[in-house]
Amino acid sequence: MVLIAATVCTKSGKALVSRQFVEMTKARIEGLLAAFPKLMTGGRQHTFVETESVRYVYQPLDKLYMLLITTKASNILEDLETLRLFSRVVPEYCTQLTETEVLNQAFNLLFAFDEIVALGYRESVNLAQVRSFVEMDSHEEKIYQAVRQTQEREAANRMRERAKELQRERLEAAKRGQNPRSNVSFGSGFGSSSMPPSSTSEPMIEKIPTTPARENRPTIRSAMKLGSRGTDADSFVSRLAKEGDVAAITPQIAAATKDIAPIAADHKDVHLRFEERLSLTAGRDGDIQNFELSGLLTLRITNEQYGRIHVHIDNKDTRPLQLQTHPNVDKEAFRSSGVIGLKQVQRPFPMNSDVGVLKWRLTSSNDDKLAPLSVNCWPSEGTGGGCDVNIEFELEQEHLTLTDVNINIPLPSGNTTLVVHQWEGSYTQKGRTLLWNIPVVNKQQKTGSLEFTVTPAIPNDFFPITVTWTSDTSLAQLTAVKVTQADDGSPVDFSQDISFRPDKYEIV
């Protein structure tokens, strides 16, 4: 199939939007469009008409026509399939099928046409993919920008704090007539907030981070003067930058935030983060061979007046979750009433750092009802040495909402032919893998199926199947009910986010 042009025109042959996909002069395309109305005389009810050189494939759109001009050697079935996709794209961007609306949306239509056809040949895309490509909305770019802003903000805050500390140390040293201390360390006593690998079964050990020792730097008298008036933190930060401290601090910030989710602008002074990772291996008959869920609740406080608080956790999960609080957390209060607070009530939580306060695990190897999503693959040998494959998924835990679900089906090596018959969502073929994407899986849209044929193939060629997703709902039904002050029990405004994703999800 070679598609010469795609045009939205009036019944008189006036072109409103026209996109040529091969080299052609303006006079030639205008002549082809001018000949189209003359060929429509006689009240013909066909969907195509031919001349000696080209074929016109068209579909009425109210008072307009969606017209494709192809070569006579092209496949008429493929022409009609491409025409149907073009006819669905036009109403997608034009609320009313009028000349004015088409002209207003001309650029969007041209961008969409370019996604459907490239150099005269049809691309393997559907309407949802065309819409996504035209919008050019990149989730990865948003994450990168958020992480970059977080790193810059954290670096600036660290430098201001360091500037204030250096000022205090130098003033105190000047009063005592001593040299300022060059090494200062502080241990918070709380573990790292990063998630441990879900595949390990060893006990989880807390690590005590310490502030790295500062380097001894010679005092530059022209840059800093003890006791001078008008020396604030911001000006001191700029001087530190000139001395090279920015280069020393930035790698620390980058390393500390590499595995931490970006801090959103709507985070409150008290922010909770529930993070879960799942490792699951299932057999082809649906039996679970390995299941391990690990979760971590981290607390971040950015305001000193909320240093001493209680976090109230509600555990609605009836499964045997293994819960473990931080050693500095009052375990008895958590067991009896689900309250996370420090043993030493006079001590505050660390400021401006993600503090892990609660971990949970759930392991099993024989409970088939624990899987959040079941995937069944039924390959059967067909005629001609090929395989007819039926794959279906079903959401098993209805309280979950999974987004951007990707089911990766391996394909046999060699020179094969893939034909997809039925699907939900969208699919693409990348090398020897068929990527099946479902935007949302929830209680309302809990099932879906994909049917395709591969020739030649055998049933074992389509395993193992891997599944990935993102979710802002947790598998373990642990929720933060409220946050209160430890002294008087007054409520504290807080924010929270939830992340649930698989580290490994395979059907072997």
From TrEMBL:
<keyword id="KW-0963">Cytoplasm</keyword>
<protein>
    <recommendedName>
        <fullName>Coatomer subunit delta</fullName>
    </recommendedName>
</protein>
<feature type="compositionally biased region" description="Low complexity">
    <location>
        <begin position="185"/>
        <end position="203"/>
    </location>
</feature>
<keyword id="KW-0968">Cytoplasmic vesicle</keyword>
<dbReference type="GO" id="GO:0030126">
    <property type="term" value="C:COPI vesicle coat"/>
</dbReference>
<dbReference type="GO" id="GO:0015031">
    <property type="term" value="P:protein transport"/>
</dbReference>
<dbReference type="GO" id="GO:0006890">
    <property type="term" value="P:retrograde vesicle-mediated transport, Golgi to endoplasmic reticulum"/>
</dbReference>
<dbReference type="GO" id="GO:0006888">
    <property type="term" value="P:endoplasmic reticulum to Golgi vesicle-mediated transport"/>
</dbReference>
<dbReference type="InterPro" id="IPR022775">
    <property type="entry name" value="AP_mu_sigma_su"/>
</dbReference>
<feature type="region of interest" description="Disordered">
    <location>
        <begin position="171"/>
        <end position="218"/>
    </location>
</feature>
<keyword id="KW-0333">Golgi apparatus</keyword>
<dbReference type="Pfam" id="PF01217">
    <property type="entry name" value="Clat_adaptor_s"/>
</dbReference>
<keyword id="KW-0813">Transport</keyword>
<feature type="domain" description="MHD">
    <location>
        <begin position="267"/>
        <end position="508"/>
    </location>
</feature>
<comment type="function">
    <text>The coatomer is a cytosolic protein complex that binds to dilysine motifs and reversibly associates with Golgi non-clathrin-coated vesicles, which further mediate biosynthetic protein transport from the ER, via the Golgi up to the trans Golgi network. Coatomer complex is required for budding from Golgi membranes, and is essential for the retrograde Golgi-to-ER transport of dilysine-tagged proteins.</text>
</comment>
<dbReference type="GO" id="GO:0000139">
    <property type="term" value="C:Golgi membrane"/>
</dbReference>
<keyword id="KW-0931">ER-Golgi transport</keyword>
<keyword id="KW-0653">Protein transport</keyword>
<dbReference type="InterPro" id="IPR036168">
    <property type="entry name" value="AP2_Mu_C_sf"/>
</dbReference>
<dbReference type="GO" id="GO:0051645">
    <property type="term" value="P:Golgi localization"/>
</dbReference>
<dbReference type="InterPro" id="IPR027059">
    <property type="entry name" value="Coatomer_dsu"/>
</dbReference>
<keyword id="KW-0472">Membrane</keyword>
<dbReference type="InterPro" id="IPR011012">
    <property type="entry name" value="Longin-like_dom_sf"/>
</dbReference>
<dbReference type="InterPro" id="IPR028565">
    <property type="entry name" value="MHD"/>
</dbReference>
<comment type="subunit">
    <text>Oligomeric complex that consists of at least the alpha, beta, beta', gamma, delta, epsilon and zeta subunits.</text>
</comment>
<comment type="similarity">
    <text>Belongs to the adaptor complexes medium subunit family. Delta-COP subfamily.</text>
</comment>
<dbReference type="Pfam" id="PF00928">
    <property type="entry name" value="Adap_comp_sub"/>
</dbReference>
